[in-house]
Design a protein that fits this description.
The chain has 207 residues and is an alpha/beta fold. Helices cover 35% and strands 21% of the residues. The chain contains seven helices and seven strands; from the N terminus they run E-H-E-H-E-H-E-H-E-H-E-E-H-H. It has helices spanning 21-29, 51-57, 70-83, 100-105, 126-133, 168-191, 200-203; strands at 10-15, 37-44, 61-64, 88-91, 110-114, 137-144, 154-161. It has a seven-stranded mixed beta sheet, with helices on one face. Strand 2, helix 2 and strand 3 (61-64) form a beta-alpha-beta unit. Helix 1 (21-29) packs parallel to helix 6 (168-191). The chain is globular. Bound molecules: 5-O-phosphono-beta-D-ribofuranosylamine. Residues 16, 18-22, 92-93, 113-115, 176, 179 line the site of 5-O-phosphono-beta-D-ribofuranosylamine.
């Protein structure tokens, strides 16, 4: 298991289900010759994910692994991640829930980005719920993945104002802009050993 910092550039895998704008931000922040890290593998559960052509356009290996069921996806994904010597996995708009076992095996090496200020508004479609709740700000959180959904320790957050005229799409677009800065910044913190995974059971949180 990799512990950070590494004495060489890290190899990043990105798991994405959709258009892949966070993948593009990570690929631009960590190009092939970067001394800290490069994105070297993209895996999608969807054949039509924009993330796959976006990766191929940058000469990054891009693999579609169908979500037959959770085990049917996770087993080949783990094999590929092992074979390619991946050091850190970034979930970026990956719309599936991985098993607690997967999260445990990659503890400290598995990150996710969520478009709300966690622990507020975890789960699907946070923007509509933010607007219904009438809170004055929202944002994004990059966190280590643990066995729960959007419950792992937060590495960093960036906030944006919620404006009176916002609908979910307008708020999502404002948050997404911050996601593209937040994800590379959080990856840098992890790879430099400045953010480490401490399971909640060891912090006393949530007990
Ligand atoms: C992002 O808002 C991410 O936080 C959320 O899904 C969206 C994915 O966007 N979980 P993209 O595929 O990275 O463009």
């Amino acid at each position: 298991m990799s512990t950070f910092p590494l004495p060489r550039p890290a190899r990043l895998a990105v798991l994405a289900s959709g258009r892949g704008s966070n993948l593009r931000a990570l690929a631009e922040a960590f190009p092939p010759d970067d001394p800290l890290a490069s994105v070297t593998l993209v895996i999608s559960d969807r054949a039509d994910a924009g993330a796959l052509p976006a990766a191929r356009a940058r000469s990054i290996e891009a693999v579609h692994l169908p979500w037959t069921d959770r085990a049917g996806f996770e087993a080949p994904a783990e094999e590929l991640i092992g074979e390619r010597g991946i050091d850190l996995i970034c979930l970026a708009g990956f719309m599936r829930i991985l098993s607690p076992g997967f999260a445990e095996r990659f503890a400290g090496r598995l990150l996710n980005i969520h478009p709300s200020l966690l622990p507020a508004f975890p789960g699907l479609d946070p923007h509509s719920r933010v607007l219904r709740a009438g809170v004055p700000e929202s944002g994004c959180s990059v966190h280590f993945v643990d066995a729960g959904v959007d419950t792992g320790p937060v590495i960093l957050q960036r906030s944006v104002p919620v404006l009176p005229a916002d609908d979910p799409a307008a708020l999502a677009a404002r948050v997404l802009e911050q996601e593209h800065c937040a994800y590379p910044e959080a990856v840098r913190l992890v790879l430099r050993g400045e953010a480490r995974f401490v399971p909640r059971s060891e912090t006393g949180a949530g007990s």
